[in-house]
Amino acid sequence: MAAVLVALCLAGCAGSAPSTLDTAGTGARRVEGLWWFMFWISVVAVLEVLLLLGWALWRRRRDTRVRAGDAMPFVGVLGVGLPFIVLVAVYGVGLRDLNALIRPPAGPELSIEVIGHRWWWEVRYPDTAGAITANEIRIPVNQTIRIRLTTADVQHSFWVPQLMPKTDLIAGRVNETWLHAERIGTFRGVCAEYCGLQHANMSLIVTVQPEEEFTAWLRDLAAPPARDLTEQQRRGQAVFEAAACGACHTVRGTTATGTIGPDLTTIGSRWSLGAGAAPNDKGHLGGWIVNPQSLKPGNQMPPQPVPASDLPDLLSYLETLR
Amino acid sequence: MTTTSAQAVPRAVAVARLEEQWREQRSLRSWFATVDHKRIGRRYLVTAGAFFGLAGIDALLLRTQLARAGGDVLSPDQYNQLFTMHGTAMIFLFATPMLFGFGNALVPLMLGARDMAFPRLNAFGYWVFLFAGLIMFSSQFLGVAPNGGWFAYVPLTDLPYSLGRNLDVYTLGLIFLGVSTTAGAINFIVTSIKLRAPGMSLNRAPLFVWAIVATSFMVLFALPALNAANALLFLDRRFGTHFFQPDAGGNTLLWQHLFWIFGHPDVYIIVLPALGIVSAILPAFCRRGVAAYPLVVLATITIAIISFGVWVHHMFATGLPSLSLSFFSAASVLITIPSGIQVFAWVATMLFGRIVVRVPLLFVVGFIVTFVMGGVTGVMFGITAFDMQITDSYFVVAHFHYVLFGGAVFPIIGGLYYWLPVLTGKMASEVLGRWAFGLVFGGFHLTFFPMHLSGLLGMPRRVYTYPTGLGWDPWNLLSTIGSYVLAVGLLLVVLSVVLAVARGPRAAVDPWGGDTLEWAATTPPRPYNFASIPQVFGLHPAWDRRTLSRLETDEVLPGHQALLTSELDARPQRLVSMPEASLRPLLAALALLVVVLGLLWAVYWLAIAGVVATIVVVVGWLWPPQLTRAEAEAA
Asked: How far is CA A52 from the centre of its chain?
């Protein structure tokens, strides 16, 4: 009963959750099947023990003299024989699924480099010069993507629950995983290895698109189309340059070429600020620039002494970066 | 085992003389100098219980922060310190010392011995544990508690990512504590091998003792890995080595291997003695011995061995080769079987026995239900593909609380109610105990069951906050409510124990009709435990007329003496004299404390002074005693 309730609930409540039981990727779908297989076996195993316990308590005897006698056959069958058979079966199914996770359904058609930083994700498309972004990955649907995982500092773990089980980012090593999305949509990912103060705010979004849309997006990411700036936006650009934002950030096509913080070439179109710490709108962006430590305490960006009068110009400039 | 002088003396006189020889003054010096395993055992229980309370308050704060999305009760750094201390303290400062407390108080009694094999080492172990615990918890009040998780993964915990004293408290505190744990483990092993009552051959040793001995061997093999890891990390942080710094050729996975070579056996180091408690409680309330005794013993030993071959299942997502993953996966799945043997042995004991429902049994039943649920999710994590998806989500938090709270805390509370007469001579209220059980059991499942769901819904662990709208909110709120219910239940446990000690009824001798020797002694036992050394003829000596009647009639073993017996068959070998109360264990622990504080504060002359002091005290401790002429002749 309870088990069925749990099952219904898990299937029903998923909604907008990055649920491992509402999968869209080949790898995650494998494990979803594995979960339900093991779930029902577990339900039977727990029920077996509960029933035996309940029976023992229910048919209690009044006589309390000490009894002798052993129960080796009982323990041998229920505690050794039966579990062994079940465990071998579970292990076999698990091995099959592990093999499926190691081998992607098709050869990879695209590579992406994901570099973990405290506390954000750098994303590079190495086959397309200049295609760099942060905290967002776009991939074409129904293609196998190779993900190369490294870290710039401490251990992190790359986990997009609806697409693929996690792989750690290990300092001093290169790990690889793959994504193969079976439907279009946006899927939330997180850092799943504790990485310090702002581990909680290290999310990313994987957007799965039809191939043409993806190709167009990648082209624009690599070489953002030139935009005519208004007077205010031009003033904002001057503020950006004067405030030395470029010491840490890159905006391709400008003098800003820093590599400590995220590449801001497409900041205007990102889904969030600070890898999920705040929504990306004018108000939050202004607040972030003036004091990043209030929205995401402990992050690596120091407060910026931008005069309040210059802030609207700067924000209107940043909005054009998309 | 006869001594010529005792034969002439009537029994009552001999017992009175024994009382006189073992009496401890009610003085401050005696309080610090005692080596009585029962007093030390009680101290372990009280101290570990206090640390449990502190770490529990940490947990309540964590749950309060997570009650709703975007909570702002704690700052990120406070949250990280609290979850690190919660885990570290529960594992190192509560679970193992608590179970060592039960071992200390009970193992000599169960064996029919008068004390542990090394009573002063025992006292030393307690003081070291106390000091290590105080160092670690005081860091929390000073705001420099460890904040790298209880697993302290490098490079986050190494320079340059972790400045400050936080992680030095962790590395030094744990090494210091390891001294205590190692000393305790050696003591349990030697005591159980050499001090069993005559006739208690290995196949008649109580299951609780088997569990404690298996655990102690695990401690001896597992702790060195942790100590080595912590020493290397301390050297990295303080003296500029690069063991864990990849830019300088160090290896960060080395830490993970070393940590989990200790860490996974440690799960069983916590659970095995608790399973031993269950095996000790059941006979009294099922009116029969635990079913399939040989299988349960074999299962205990098998767990102790296999548990050293499963550590990589904590590293399934680190990108190791899949062939090695599948080996560790197989071992992780296989270790379920010895656990299953024990579960079905207990179920059989209940099925084929005659059940008497009292508070200790309720906690055992609660344990079995919870532990089995934690066990089935444990199998899931043994399966690599599932582990890679679900590890480091809240599902894991649910799983290991089912195993550790279900597997250790339920038996610990059950054991507390069961042995309260032995520990204090008082009985706890049955009514309060049943309320406490209901609240603890209900509160536990309300807290931790929803975490399975939030984990499956993709919520990662160790996050100080989470956004709303991802389907995690209701489950987190339920968990928080459950944690308060659980806290009330645990407070009731404490209240019922305090009330029992303060004004509870005196316990009758052997109030539950237990089967092991602690119930054959007086309740509570005298300082010397048994006037005559018990003779054992079977697995259940306290149910054995022969043992009981000979305890009344056998001649009294005078003075501070213990009887050594052979390792396998427990044949009497010779009498040895036991050390008496001494302040040296406390002084040695204090000297070591100076070493640790000197290293912690980087005041190295102080550390060196501490080392010198330690050596001086230990030499004094081990200096052969001056024998009187009579003693020398007798020897």
From this structure: 42
Domains of chain B: 5-634 (1.20.210.10)
Would the ipTM clear 0.85, i.e. be above it? yes
The values of phi and psi at residue B152, to 5°, are: 45, 50
How big is the CA angle at A182 (ends A179 and A187), to the nearest 5 degrees?
Answer: 65
Task: Name chain A contacts of B155, Cβ cutoff 8 Å.
Answer: 153-155, 171
Residue with tokens 């999920």: A276
Q: Taking chain A, what is the end-to-end CA distance rounded to the nearest angstrom?
A: 52
Residue of chain A whose Cα is closest to the Cα of B246: A172
Given a contact cutoff of 8 angstroms between Cβ atoms, the answer to whether B304 and B275 are in contact is no
- pLDDT 10s digits, B112-140: 999 999 999 999 999 999 999 999 999 99
Q: With bands split at pLDDT 50, 70 and 90, how would you rate the model's confidence at A107?
A: confident
> What gap in Å lies between CA B226 and CA B326, rounded to an integer?
25
pLDDT above 60 for A64: no
Q: Say yes or no for a CB contact (<8 Å) between B471 and A55.
A: no
Chains A and B: how many Cβ contacts under 8 Å?
A: 292
At residue B3 the predicted structure's pLDDT band, cuts being 50, 70 and 90, is very low
Contacts of B252 in chain A (CB under 8 A): 155, 170-173
**Which tokens in the block code for residue A88?**
């071998």
Residue A176 with chain B: CB contacts under 8 Å? 319
Sheet holding A144-151, edge to edge: A132-134, A120-124, A110-117, A144-151, A175-180
| Tokens 């698109």 found at | A209
B368-419 per-position pLDDT tens digit: 999 999 999 999 999 999 999 999 999 999 999 999 999 999 999 999 999 9
Structure tokens at B86: 């919660």
Residues facing residue A250 across a β-bridge? A257
Query: Are B337 and A83 in contact (CB < 8 Å)?
Result: yes
Concatenating the DSSP letter of every residue in B402-438 gives HHHIIIIIHHHHHHHHHHHHHHHSB---HHHHHHHHH
**Among residues B617, B626, B614, which one has the least CA distance to residue B583?**
B617
- Beta pairing class for A144-151 and A110-117: parallel
CA distances from B365 to A283, B180, B295, B611 (A): 56, 32, 21, 49
* Residue B624, token pair as written in the block: 């052969």
Portion of chain A with pLDDT greater than 90, in percent: 79
Q: Which neighbouring-strand residues pair with A146?
A: A111, A178
d(CA B185, CA B192): 11
**Residues A193, B153: Cα–Cα separation, whole Å:** 9
Contact B350 A56 (CB under 8 A): yes
Cross-chain Cβ contact A155/B467 below 8 Å? no
DSSP line for B564-601: EE-TTT--EEEEEEPP---SHHHHHHHHHHHHHHHHHT
Q: CB neighbours of B398 closer than 8 A, spacing ≥ 6?
A: B377, B448, B449, B450, B451, B452, B455
State the residue for tokens 């005290």.
B617
Contacts of B318 in chain A (CB under 8 A): 168, 170, 175
Q: Specify the amino acid at residue A123.
A: V
Q: How far is CA B486 from CA B174, B360, B474, B584, in A?
A: 29, 18, 18, 41
Amino acid at B284: A
Tokens describing residue B156: 């986050």
Phi/psi at A19 (5° precision): -85, 140
d(CA A48, CA A35): 20
Query: B611: pLDDT confidence band, cut at 50, 70 and 90?
Result: very high
Q: Which two tokens stand for residue B187?
A: 């003591």
CB B47 within 8 Å of CB B74? no
